[in-house]
Specification:
alpha/beta, 5-stranded mixed beta sheet, two-stranded antiparallel ribbon, 8 helices, binds zinc ion
């Protein structure tokens, strides 16, 4: 029914999370209404974002610079490290302005059921960093889930003899909730009331 190019645009939108057939159609038709310059900007942004974005060599946060803005910032506390499961969480915490230490981004969480094992989540980079930098505290800020729990315990066990305080977000964050859908007050409280893992 649809011309091929329109159909292909609809299919492209459908590859994005949360976009079903109807929304994809609506988006595709609204693209047809855009001015030429807008289309130009849209397609070049799509092109650029993939080309210029890479992982920060220190903390694994997505960046388009040599180092990310956090590793670049010498005013941040360097003795406290917040370990997160993805870059989205870094941006979320930064938007809320509730953490002033350093971050480290894992490549996801351990999830044996999904075939994601400890060697798949970039632990080597984290452990190297912990060995080389002097952190007094490491916070695991994972979404509350079996995967988050498994990952926390796994890393804690490796760090056992290192005499570093290891904490996690306080409970109150709903189980299974995605970080970005947790309200900022709850998240801030969970961070401030963080608990030592034992
Ligand atoms: Zn960085």
């Amino acid at each position: 029914m649809y011309p091929d190019s329109l159909k292909s645009l609809i299919e492209s939108f459908k590859t994005l999370p949360g976009i079903g057939e109807k929304t994809a159609e609506r988006l595709a038709f609204s693209v047809l209404d855009l001015e030429d310059e807008q289309i130009e900007l849209f397609s070049s942004s799509l092109d650029e974002v993939k080309k210029s974005i890479h992982k920060c060599p220190i903390c694994n946060t997505l960046t388009d610079k040599d180092k990310c803005f956090i590793c670049e910032d010498s005013n941040r506390k360097s003795d406290i490290l917040c370990v997160v499961e993805d870059t989205k969480t870094v941006f979320l915490f930064e938007k809320l302005g509730m953490f002033h230490g350093k971050y480290h981004v894992l490549d996801g969480l351990i999830s044996p059921l999904d075939g994601i094992n400890p060697e798949d989540i970039g632990l080597g980079m984290l452990l190297d960093r912990i060995e080389n930098e002097k952190f007094g505290e490491i916070i695991f800020a994972f979404k509350p889930s079996i995967e988050g729990e498994t990952t926390s315990l796994y890393i804690k066990k490796i760090l056992e003899d290192m005499n570093i305080k290891i904490t996690r977000l306080a409970s109150g964050v709903p189980i299974g909730a995605d970080m970005e859908y947790i309200d900022s007050l709850t998240l801030e409280r969970a961070l401030n009331d963080r608990k030592i893992i034992d």
